[in-house]
Predict the structure.
Amino acid sequence: MTEVRSATPVPPPTLRPRRPRRVVAWEWARANLFDGPVNTALTLVTVAFLVWFVPIALRWLVIDAVGIGGDVAACKTSGGACWAFLRVKGDVILTGTYPFDERWRAQVAALVTLVTVAIALFWRGSFLGLAGLFLAACAVDLVFLSGGVFGLSRIDATRWNGLPLVLFLSVFTMAAALPIGVALALARKSPAVVVRLLAIAWIEAIRGIPMVAVLFAGVFILPLLMPPGWHLSSMISIFVVLTVFHAAYFAEDVRSGLDDFDKGQVEAALSVGLTPRQTLRFVVLPQALRTALPALTNSIIGGYKDTSLVAIVGLFDLMATSRLATADVEWQAYSLEANIVVGVFYLVTCVAVSERFRRLAHIAPTANR
């Protein structure tokens, strides 16, 4: 006969009582802000600085400030910020010397680039589709900024200033540089000696040169290397050298992911019938790029901010157009307001990109399980 055993009843799980939020907050503060004499002193100094600084900043930024609808006379008698400066000179800060009647084109181009970046950050399609998105956006930007087609008047590239210039050069040069960087990283680990040495020479030569020198080379040296009768505009030269520059840094970021990759997975993929190309596409690169994502994020944000160095070769980035806006004697005293707005724009965009990549790095492993 089958022995029947009575099941032992399992006691219900005990629920821990929910602690008050003030208790949790105090424990966090003790662990992070007051866990030693040094941290305690730094915390007290920081709190004292904020108690002194925040009321002054609020008074200057808001309480005593002149709003957008004010005028220069009110700004001169006010003790706070003059936000009316942004209403009067906002177009100059955004588009610089772009023709006044055509500035809507530059604004549309900047909006197209920002929307493209937003779509790319949440992209779930194929790599070819993403590449097509960037190519289409680049073509649209060129049509609006340059003109000469569809009845749009032609605008010289030297007048692409401010926000459209920064977005165009930073977004599309890095979009072009990323696949080149991946190819360079793979070439640097290639068993072919010539391919590996050429990749090493490219990467180390570019990474050993400051970006300022690369920009000067693109504007003044690269056109001299063209065949007789060929004309290379400064915008194309800068686009090329920035792409080459970013590709070298992306290559090293991707190589860090390739070095961290478990080689046994390659052998396993080959053993189940995958070709070397399929192994690279479906096994190696997804995991290597995920590992390299923090380093790639750092390079992308750094390249985005370093695009402002184009001002050295005569182009007007956002900081240059903000100085151009204060060239008017009547508004010369309000450059700080322009710099604050430009700084906040860079801060918001960099934090948004950094946060999105951080989330991608966090959720990617779960999606692959």
